[in-house]
Design goal:
The complex is a heterodimer of chains A (about 100) and B (about 400). Chain A is mainly alpha-helical and about 100 residues long. Chain A is built from five helices and three strands. The relative contact order of chain A is 0.13. Classes of the chains: A mainly alpha (about 100), B alpha/beta (about 400).
Chain lengths: ~100, ~400
Amino acid sequence: MSEVSKEKVIICRCNNVSQKDIEDLIDEGITDIEVIKRVTRAGMGPCQGRTCVPLIVSLISRKAGIKIEDIKIPPARIPVRYVPMGIFALEDKDDEENE
Amino acid sequence: MKKMNKSDIVIVGGGITGLAMAYNLANKGENVIVVEKSYCGSGSTFRCASGIRQQFGDEANIKMMKRSIDIWKNLSEQLEYDIDFIQDGYLFLLYDEKEISDYKKYVSLQNQHGVHSKIIDAKEVKDIVPIIDMHDLKAASWNDTDGKANPFKTVMGYKNKLKEMDVEILEYTKVTDVVLENNKGDKREIKEVITDKGGIKTGIVVNCTNAWARELNSKIGIDLPILPYKHQCMKTEPFKYGQIRPMVVSFKHGGVYFTQEGNQGGIIGGYGLKYGPTMDIVPTYEFLKGVSSRISQIIPSMKYAAVIRTWAGYYAETPDGNPLVGKIEGVNDYYIAGGFSGHGFMLAPAIAEALLQEIRTGKTSLPLDFYDPGRFSKGEIRHKSIQMG
């Protein structure tokens, strides 16, 4: 794929990060997803990496020649999908009333 | 690895403190190397809530933070990297007479040291953050020169600059041992830092590992009271910037704090729920519920803001909530800057400057004595610093 089109291939849709953005870091020797996500913000938007992390794993593996099973995946944290604060706040209130 | 010798300095810990320290030392022509067990910023810096304030309740922290803000203001320029430093202020919400009288004292102390904070009434709070619920709110302590910066970009800025200055940063390198030698008398001297990638000859070591400080100290036969506690933070979906410009703090709501992130527009916040001492950093549901209810009590419309992420990090705490910074007795040229108790990010530029002066000349114009690492063994304890989260 040419360089121009790599700029147009969006890997992280939440934060608009392209294949070129990711591959440039891999070329610099950065293959730790924890660092890639902090530099590019890929995986830090509303979907929390559920779309882009598998794609980034694949890019790292192909470009840096690292086996997929050797690439560390960032931990999934709560909430699993985005939830309005009011829902959690309500539960907190329920807890207090039950005490 | 570059060849090092006795007079060269090994900094252990590649968080903001270690990197700022390396930058200041390298700027003065010192030969310095940074050893980081994971990637730079991975410890506490990348987990911090980005706040930078001068509103403390004691002279030393006020003076240090005043100097720090002076440095923060020019840091993007110095590092030639935009670190998103914004002076959008810190707003401490006050709900009763006792809080107001305490904060009047702090404000007067801050004013004495050239920080122009002030007590404002509820109506003025409304002008600063219109969406705050005014019920029961009496006043606030406000300083418009406090602010925030982007921790990721700040670390990247220092890292890039250090690379340009030819300073070696050994990431994914763990210190496994420190070789000491007994001199005449009982003074011990550092000879070599051993890592899993090889040894580094040195005579001077700076422990900037914060939450891991005790582990490194133990290799040198030193024990200082720094313990890691789990604190958490959450972030919402992004909004147009300007909803909550300052860092808003309320001790009436369990030490809750929140602000809108300048670059991405999400609202980040936490409160005083802590677990530990522990090295565990898995976020908890208890936190998610507690932080949501507290923030939405202060800003009711936040009920509709979706949380996209929670994370945890360490407050490396000391008995008085103030860091240990300076020379450690009993070993030649062993220094520490750790135990920041949640204030490491904001303090780093001034701490690095003061410790640089201390290492090079044995004295500094900044109040570093306050952070004396030996104070607890001398039976001294400082007034607890103002700390939230």
